[in-house]
Amino acid sequence: MLVNTDQHGAVRSDDPLNCPPKCESTVVCGRLEEEDVGAASSGRRAFVAPDGGFQAWLQVVGAFFVSFNSWGIVGTFGVFQTFYETSPSSILLQSSPSQISWIGSMQAFLLLLVSVLSGPAFDSGHMKFLLASSLFCTPLGFMMTSISSEYWHVMLAQGLCIGVGLGAGFTPSVSIVPQYFLRRRATALGMAATGASIGGVVYPILFHASLDTLGFRWSCRILGFVSAATLAIPFLVLRNQVGFSAAQKRRLIDLAALRNPHFVVYCLAMFLIFLGFLIPMFYVQSFAISKGIVGNVVNVDDGDGDGGGYGDGHGDGLAFYLLPILNAGSTLGRLLPNYVVDRCGPFNVLLPLTTGSAILALCWPSVQSTGGIVVFASLYGFFTGGMVSATAVPIISFANNQRNVGTYVGMCFFCTAFGLLAGPPSAGAILTQSNNYLGPSLFGGIALLLASFLLVAIRLRMVGCVAAVKV
Question: What pTM was estimated for this model as a whole?
Answer without folding.
Answer: 0.79
